[in-house]
Write a structure and sequence with these properties.
heterodimer; A: alpha/beta; Beta Polymerase, domain 2; 2 domains; six-stranded mixed beta sheet; 8 strands; elongated; B: alpha/beta; Transcription Regulator spoIIAA; 3 helices; 37% helix; globular
Chain lengths: 353, 100
């Protein structure tokens, strides 16, 4: 029988000789997986890969070198770690790994299923092989877990608790409570994502079908509404006065103005456009027609609609200033702008109805 | 139309003086090119002595804003008089800039 130290030394020597192959495998396998994940649009928290260091390998061989006949009985010489944000995505990553690599099922572990009584180090580990090529006989490991599982694992490592150590029951209980909380949080984040995706789909379909009164006003619904370019007609009318170019500009900040107007749904926004477009056009033209300004922001129509609405609501200068405050941020000079707009509006027909 | 450039406390500052109209915009465009290399620097357009801005001037400011955004720099417009501010407001561009 070969003494243990000689066996370890022989395995280490083989590892050194095989290092260039391991480096090639690390590069190839990680590139294949990363590319496949990118194609499927899976958002990752972390994607890491490494070759086991000589120090770590020596430690492993000193502890349980007798278990390994050859260096490739050690299945994590090359390791890839994929950390996702959501639990559902761990399963997606697993499906992708199964598709592009051969899996050694005998040595792969789903610790999520094995530890029914505790959260602990929940992670999915696959031992894989490339499907073809000269490196196809060298195993490598893929660890897949969520960001919360990853954090748990890091804290567990820092505290030095590995489950095997005999701890007083109150500490074990504290670990279990925290573990349960993290597992629930992971599930809830996944559930929330699914619910929000479903909500976005519904909003999209209601907005597309024009059922605006059914859609509550929110960041998502307003964004979908803007995709329909509801202010284009008014913008083009205003731009025609000076044959102006329309310059793209963000309009999401107007959601805050709508909230201050107490609009509840997209039906309110649609009604606001229908009832105020003519007056908004008159207001814009009364200012622009006496200039030769031939570049306008894409928000020009919406801005004038809001100003007209604020005036009609009887808010006076401070009502108009509130609109400018919401759009431009609170500034003293907004009061001067408000005074000018009110002065201009006083000449227009809607003020005398 | 006159412009002066200075770098102060890590910020790029350009002082404008006179009328930024179609006639002066070609020259001013060249002078503003120094601001385009703004990675890591916020930009201040000091308009205290700017008397007038036309659409051509607005276009120069908007072009600079576009470049600065891609480089992660902020563009602030400082000390603008009420007439100039009204030009920004009536064209709907006020919310694109930060005013000091």
């Amino acid at each position: 029988m070969i003494p243990q130290s000689l066996h370890t030394a022989a395995l280490l020597e083989t590892w050194r000789q095989e290092l260039p192959q391991l480096e090639q495998l690390e590069e190839q396998a990680s590139a294949m997986l990363e590319e496949a994940l990118r194609e499927q649009n899976i958002q990752l928290n972390t994607f890491q890969h490494r070759i086991k260091t000589e120090e770590s390998l020596t430690g492993k061989l000193e502890k349980k070198g007798y278990k390994y006949q050859t260096i490739y009985d050690i299945t994590d010489l090359v390791g890839i770690r994929v950390v996702t944000y959501y639990t559902d995505d761990v399963d997606k990553v697993a499906v992708i790994a199964k598709k592009i690599f051969d899996i050694d099922w005998k040595n792969s572990v789903d610790k999520r299923k094995h530890q029914l009584n505790s959260f602990g180090y929940l992670s999915l580990h696959y031992i894989c092989y490339l499907k073809k090529g000269p490196l196809r006989k060298i195993p490598f490991e893929i660890q897949m877990r969520t960001a919360l599982q990853h954090v748990w694992s890091a804290i567990e490592h820092d505290i030095g608790y590995k489950g095997a150590v005999k701890l007083p029951p109150e500490f074990v209980r504290q670990f279990s409570r925290l573990a349960g909380m993290l597992e629930m949080a992971d599930d809830e984040f996944s559930r929330l994502r699914t619910t929000m995706t479903e909500y976005r789909r519904q909003v999209q379909s209601l907005v597309r079908s024009g059922q605006f009164t059914e859609v509550s006003l929110s960041t998502d619904s307003f964004r979908q509404f803007l995709d329909l370019h509801p202010f284009d007609r008014l913008n083009q009318r205003i731009a025609a006065v000076n044959q102006a170019e329309i310059f793209p500009a963000p309009m999401m900040q107007y959601l805050q103005v709508f909230e201050s107007f107490r609009f509840k749904d997209l039906g309110d926004v649609q009604k606001f456009i229908e009832e105020n477009s003519e007056d908004a056009y008159q207001l814009a033209v009364s200012q622009l027609a006496i200039t030769d300004l031939d570049i306008l922001s894409e928000s020009i129509g919406l801005q004038n609609l809001c100003l007209v609405y604020a005036i009609k609501q009887g808010g006076g200068i401070y009502g108009i200033k509130a609109v400018y405050d919401a759009i431009n941020g609170e500034q003293d000079s907004n009061i001067t702008l408000a005074e000018d707009v009110l002065h201009q509006a006083q000449q227009l027909p809607f003020m005398h109805k | 139309m006159k412009t002066t450039f200075e770098e102060k406390d890590g910020k790029f500052i350009m002082h404008f003086e006179g009328r930024l109209d179609t006639a002066s915009s070609v020259q001013t465009e060249q002078e503003m090119k120094v601001l385009y290399d703004c990675e890591g620097h916020d930009i201040i357009l000091d308009c205290e002595k700017l008397d007038y801005i036309s659409s051509s001037g607005l276009r120069l400011f908007l072009a600079l804003l576009k470049v600065a955004k891609t480089k992660g720099s902020k563009v602030c417009v400082a000390s603008m008089n009420d007439n100039l501010r009204q030009v920004f407001a009536m064209t709907g561009f006020t919310h694109l800039f930060e005013f000091l």
